[in-house]
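Sample entry follows:

_____
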Amino acid sequence: MYFAKEFMSDIIKLLPDHVANQIAAGEVIQRPASVVKELLDNAVDAGATQIDLIIKEGGKTLIQVFDNGTGMSVTDARMCWERHATSKIKSAEDIYAIKTMGFRGEALASIASVAQVEMRTKQQQDNLGTMILIEGSRVIKQESITMLTGTQITVKNLFYNIPARRNFLKSNPVETRHIFDEFTRAALSNPHIAFTLTNQKEMVYDLKSGDLSRRIFELFGYEKNKDLLPLNEETTIANISGFVGKPENAKKTRGEQFFFVNNRYIKDAYLNHAMMAGYDQIISKEQFPFYLVNIDINPQHIDVNVHPTKTEIKFDDEKSLYQILRAVCKKAVGEHYHVPIYTPMSDDGFLQLNQPSNQPLGNNDNRSQVSPSYKNEHQHFSTHQTQQKDWQALFQLMQKEETIGDMGGKKVRPPQELPGLETSDVLHSRLLINLHGIFILTTIKNGIILIDISAAHERVLFSKYMDALQNQPIASQQILFPKTVSFSSPDASLLRDLLADIRALGFDVNELGGNTFSVNGVPAELNHYNEQHLLEEVLELYKQQTQQDTRHQRIAKILAQRAAVKPGTKLNQDEMSLLTDELFACVDNKVSPSGKSCFKNLSIEDLYKLINQPQ
């Protein structure tokens, strides 16, 4: 025992500063967007009225932030790169009264440890400014320069000294979208500050200083009186302000929902649920309304120091805040959104649709509460124009849209042999029974086979789309009048990134400039969808898909899920036969992309066991 103690060396050592900074950078600087967030926060804290952001290659090679704020002295310019150096707090208690964006003093030190950084800064009262060049936490150069008041920070080659971290970065379009998100949040929380964003030498945003409604219009195109409903409520717990979008403008994609607590952007699923509850029974669960909520609260009632990126906050009375937000949202939507009210002409009015009405729809006093937009969209269904043949035509159209339609337009490949299943019997049998629009039942030599219609169709479409992406593109079904669709900058960037792939799947989409696109055609299976909503769903589902799948698999899975027939669809004999043939022609036909079984083989013995089970 004494021998072991005598020869055992000390193993605990203090980490060098540059290593400690790189470890901290792993928490604070996760990607280029993290650098952008920290630099924009510092520019806001410096009292800037003009902030310019310039990026290249998704921020991997270049991030520049220029501001006209107060600038720094020579000593501060050098000190700010040290770890835990900050002007925001002096004691731990100050954290619970913080109102600035940055405060821990980790950001600049973390950035300098994993990138090549140049800072130029000058205070108004100084004749000369200071330039500092840092690489991997080491100061390479420091000198006096001439410049205007403010600070200019250039970050080059992020993670150049940590190749493993750099390899985990996503593609340039993906990283650019994350930067756009951070820029948008900073611009929304500070509408009094002018912002510009330049990507690849192209000006993307040039936002003028103004009020919040103008900033929302510049970023999203929503007009104050046309598309937005104001929030304004003062309580003893917090003051709520901002805007929510009208229900009819709700989208199929997330990304236009914002919470700011004392001007700090946060993410909070619990409070998001409160806002969505304000739209309960007005929009579907697949739709997401716009909202921007400013929560002004006493800093002593919150803890902002719970996450390295400072996007999560703890409230000491979260339940009360939930109820306040829910009530404020319901009030705003209820006061400005009028739900159409239907009053029948008589008790048997539905049975008398063929009979002409003696009173125009607009003269009914009880219907005057219907919103003008609703009247304009539905006035062509007035009882003057209703004919029985119209209802029959509409019913036939709905029936047509709910059928399988074109299952691929190509010759069926020979079926793959499956263990325990005589597929030749299935393919040549004409005894096909549709069970409640959910299953196809057919007999085989030793029993029956039960096919899940929706899962089988999804598998068939997935195989078709994968083949289109890898081999032969699918022809697009052209629409009579091209549709113009618009997206937010991050979603527009993602759509550009996916454009070549979705074109191979039958979408005919062209860029019109900015964030606007023209849809000239869609895949045949999706021709009854609203073009804007369809593309929004594709983008939203793509963002939610697991990274384990390849890019093509993710896109093919999304469209297959969206285009597959829904449970309850009635199929005729030809459609059931075609679906069955296509399913067993697939190489992998047992499970759908969603993970559901496509079919189940039940032998005669299995059926005997089922029917003879004890009751």
Q: What stands out?
A: The radius of gyration is 31 Å. Residues 352-401 form one domain. Residues 318-336 form the longest helix (19 residues).
